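Need the bound structure for heme C, inputs here:
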Amino acid sequence: MRFFRRTRLLFSATFITGLLLLAGALLVGFDIDEEGRVRPASNGVLAQGIENSTDECVVCHVDQTPGIVNQFGESDHFSNNVSCSDCHLVEEGYAGSVQHPNEEFYVLPLSSTAQCAECHREQVAQFNLSRHALPSYVAYAGTDPLTEDQLAMYQSIPERGGIDSRNRNSLHAMEGEAVTRFACETCHNVGRPNPDGSIGNCTACHIRHEFSLEQVRKPETCNACHIGPDHPQWEIYSESGHGISYLTGGDDWNWDAEPGNVTTVDFPAPTCATCHMSGFGLSATTHDVGDRLTWYLASAISSRRPAWEENRVRMQQVCLACHSNNFVDDFYDAGDALVDSINTWVMLSDWMMQPLKDNGLLTAQAFDEPIDFTYFNIWHHWGRTAKFGSWMQGADYVQWHGAYEILHDLAILREEVDAKLEEAGLEPLDLPDNFPSIDAARDVVGSQSE
Ligand code: HEC
Ligand code: HEC
Ligand code: HEC
Ligand code: HEC
Ligand code: HEC
Ligand code: HEC
Ligand code: HEC
Ligand code: HEC
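Answer from helper R.:
Posting the output first, comments after.
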């Protein structure tokens, strides 16, 4: 009895508190949905001008989604009379659209590149030609899910190739959808096809709904994806002279400078965007991030790109705004020589694995025995890291996360290969005494220069 009385008391107390909360919420203007979740109806700090807007979407969404309206109010879109409708309102039946809650019209809940293309045709065309578009998606999904048109578009990208996929896609299959939607896909969906057939997601870099130049020019934007053991561009940049200039003095830079011809007055040192995208010096703004690259650095064994000579000129024109001709030429010669050394070590690792392949001593399944990881890490982590580190000035990544790790894993690879050969009654690898030095690697596989 006592128990029931207590629970009844508890129940009434909860009920009354609930009622009070509800009344309170209604009084101060909170919004409660069918599931009992409460949302603040207005947070009061509206961007200048937006409170006078007569746009029906804005008028209602100020209460429904105040965060979005606030960000939109800060944007150049709002001050240039671009409206919510321009990006979201579509015909009934438009692929990916839904009927707007309580209204007759249809909206795209996630606006697509097709809407941006109405006004920013050039940026979209450049983006579509880059590895941020379909190649990013194909890197984990393969080409099977592409429509005929998308396949043709993918095949028309001159720089889509160059990087052999060496088992990487098998990680996607091994880990399964529940994991990869938070992993591979979070980064690689920058180039995923949308329901309406357009490609990619501009908001992978341009955070909605402000679409601010300052935000997208800052290197933190790129570090959403260009980070970690296999592509540590953010870490490398942070320890370079350029990154240190940004981290210690960037507050004073002219982040909102008009795009097209940004100068050294605006940016005394470069960010990722300056070197790879901004109109700077004689190089025009581009959304094709491959447009200034010489090498396929992400490759196991790097080769030069189809249009590498023109690309290199475009990158060097950026450097030349701040550095001398000789400085830039010396730097490029040194970078090319480093690529040659890393290529040589990776070829040595291929040479070491060859007898296992020839004698059927490896399992068919990728990543099921330690040797698969050792072999993979040599090029996918350490080789890449050393190359990126040299080209973007991160000494620690060239040395301790790069060359040193290569030597370490080559020594382990030798033990792992020899163990398998001996188990099969075969001779161990015949390697020179100074293995795994670069001289030994050159002796075994020859020089790779030019
Ligand atoms: C009378 C109020 C009202 C008007 C007018 C209005 N909206 Fe909405 N809108 C809402 C509400 C309420 C939601 C649902 C919010 C939620 O689910 O949390 C919503 C949701 C949305 C969504 C998300 C839909 C989804 O399924 O995720 C979009 C996009 C949107 N509105 C765009 C617009 C555009 C564009 C206009 C003008 C053409 C507009 N809205 C006009 C109240 C309004
Ligand atoms: C310049 C184009 C553009 C304008 C203008 C714009 N949006 Fe969006 N909006 C987008 C994009 C792009 C996305 C989806 C981003 C993604 O895929 O991650 C989005 C997402 C949304 C979402 C769903 C995501 C969420 O966070 O709930 C809502 C709701 C929305 N917008 C409402 C609005 C409203 C209301 C306005 C006007 C006040 C507006 N948008 C103006 C481009 C725009
Ligand atoms: C209806 C036309 C229209 C649509 C649709 C549109 N924009 Fe814009 N956008 C503009 C205009 C106009 C400006 C201002 C141009 C200027 O300042 O020179 C602008 C400016 C920008 C800027 C530069 C902001 C700045 O501070 O200068 C970015 C970034 C941008 N848009 C991205 C997008 C993206 C991404 C989409 C799609 C999600 C999109 N826009 C959709 C018309 C549009
Ligand atoms: C943190 C973001 C991130 C995650 C997670 C991620 N990648 Fe990547 N991936 C990148 C970036 C950035 C590059 C580009 C490296 C470069 O060019 O320096 C890349 C490059 C690649 C490449 C080489 C490019 C090509 O077109 O062949 C493949 C293949 C690839 N990733 C597959 C995957 C798979 C499969 C997964 C999941 C098992 C995955 N990635 C997870 C960001 C990511
Ligand atoms: C890899 C990140 C990234 C992606 C993805 C991206 N942008 Fe940009 N965008 C930038 C950067 C960085 C700038 C600033 C360039 C500069 O410094 O002038 C910029 C500038 C812009 C501008 C204003 C500059 C100008 O030349 O007028 C527009 C408009 C724009 N982007 C539209 C888009 C559209 C549309 C998409 C999707 C197809 C897109 N962006 C995808 C990084 C990106
Ligand atoms: C949402 C994730 C994401 C963001 C954010 C992002 N990238 Fe990427 N980026 C990728 C992926 C994935 C690849 C590899 C694509 C491939 O090769 O298949 C890539 C490749 C590249 C490449 C090599 C292109 C080539 O042709 O090999 C450059 C350069 C690059 N990104 C620069 C940038 C810069 C600069 C920024 C910031 C302004 C940026 N990225 C932001 C995911 C991202
Ligand atoms: C000083 C200019 C500069 C800055 C700053 C810079 N990069 Fe680079 N980046 C380069 C050069 C040069 C290369 C090598 C180009 C080549 O192949 O010739 C490169 C290579 C790359 C690659 C490798 C592409 C491939 O072939 O696999 C990626 C990805 C990349 N940078 C992204 C970034 C990101 C992200 C940032 C900021 C965190 C950044 N870069 C900062 C100049 C720069
Ligand atoms: C906007 C100006 C600017 C641009 C563009 C620029 N740099 Fe720099 N660079 C600097 C500054 C500033 C430093 C830091 C100098 C110091 O450490 O005293 C620096 C340092 C360097 C260093 C280290 C030099 C040393 O003595 O330690 C290298 C290497 C370098 N830059 C290469 C490049 C390359 C390659 C490019 C083009 C891909 C480039 N930079 C583009 C301004 C620039």
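Comments: The chain has four domains: 25-108, 120-204, 213-322, 327-445. DSSP finds 21 helices and five strands in the chain.
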